[in-house]
Amino acid sequence: MTISGDLLDLIRNSQRITVLTGSGISAESGIPTFRDALTGLWANYSPEELATPEAYYKNPSLVWKWYAWRRQLISQAQPNPAHQVLARMQSRVAGFTLLTQNVDGLHQRAGSTSVVEYHGNIMRTRCSRHGCMTDVPPIEGEPPACPECSAMLRPDVVWFGESIPNHAQFTAVTASEDCQLFIAIGTSGIVYPAASLAQLAQSKGARFLEINLDRTPLSSMADFRLQGPAGEILPELEQAAWPDVR
Ligand code: BJW
User: Fold this and answer.
1) pLDDT of 101 over the 90 cut
2) Exposed end of the chain (fewer CB within 10 Å): N or C?
3) Residue 146: which CATH number?
4) By residue range, what is the domain housing residue 21?
């Protein structure tokens, strides 16, 4: 892989870098991406049929089981080198913001702090009627009841048709508008509003780097593209930008 000198200078000299990650960054940890075909029990479903409030109210058991299956995969997974590079970057770049669409918590497990969880976290539960967060663990079986009002609990994630949590949206917009370099890693760029952040950053003067296995709808607007697995590209990029790194 050839990394341009312009990109390395930009990385070294940027005081504010904003990174948006998608499910591709966790693929090398063994977690299927969102648009990978589901297998086994789930082969007949698409995520679009399961990650909606309508699906949950129509068949709560089914959707809860899907989340239980995913939680199990996540609990067996480990952060990979891509997560680890981003965790180290937070101490190298003064204004470093990490936005993730992933609900798997692997960035935090790699050591990243202040991660903006744009689509929530699969390990938390909240009330499906009032939205309040609970301490009830997401147990297997049927969806548990809210301790306050007995309504069904749901995973604390953002489904299609739902709004991004205010704090996450505010931080994401501010960090995108303010950065000098915006990096999108392992995201298909088809789910909004996350997919609009790169363009927002560029419209305010930032340069845009895309890291992905394949081309995406964001590729044509990227100032720099590094094509390949994030778990290989990010360590190479880190080594090239900061050769003193371990
Ligand atoms: C690798 C790799 C490796 C693999 N290395 N790379 C504007 C235009 C059109 C539509 C809309 C719009 N605004 C809103 C919408 C509707 C909708 C939407 O975007 N639909 C699209 C499908 C068209 N958006 C919403 O509903 C959002 N809400 C909203 O806008 O609220 C306002 C509103 C309210 C009411 C009415 C109208 C508006 C909410 C979106 C919530 C998305 N939720 C999910 C589920 C989260 C919970 C869970 O995990 O269960 O979030 S869906 C799913 O997609 C998940 C992901 O975070 C998200 C993005 O997927 P991601 O991460 O990009 O994964 P993939 O699989 O798509 O791509 C993987 C990529 O990795 C690929 O590119 C690979 O090549 C790459 N890759 N291995 C590097 N090793």
Assistant:
1) yes
2) C
3) 3.30.1600.10
4) 5-31+79-119+163-241
Half-sphere exposure of 24 (CA within 13 A, CB side): 23
Cβ atoms 124, 156 nearer than 8 A: yes
Tell me the catalytic residues.
119
Residues 133 and 231 in one domain: no
Is ligand 1 within 6 A of the CB of residue 229? yes
For ligand 1, mutation pick of 191, 197, 232 (most atoms within 8 Å of CB): 191
Q: What is the rounded CA–CA span in Å between residue 163 and residue 23? A: 19
The answer to whether the CB of 31 is under 6 A from ligand 1 is no
pTM of the predicted model as reported, rounded to 2 decimal places: 0.97
Does ligand 1 have an atom closer than 6 angstroms to the CB of 214? yes
For the Cβ of 104 lying below 6 angstroms from any atom of ligand 1, the answer is no
Whole-number pLDDT of residue 57:
95
For residue range 10-43, what is the model confidence (pLDDT) as tens digits?
A: 999 999 999 999 999 999 999 999 888 777 667 7
Which ligand 1 atom sits nearest the alpha carbon of residue 102?
57
pLDDT at site 189: 97
| CA–centroid distance, residue 187 to ligand 1 (Å) | 8
Closest CA to 91 of 64, 71, 63, 111: 111
Distance between CA 76 and CA 81 in Å, rounded? 16
Are 106 and 168 within one domain? yes
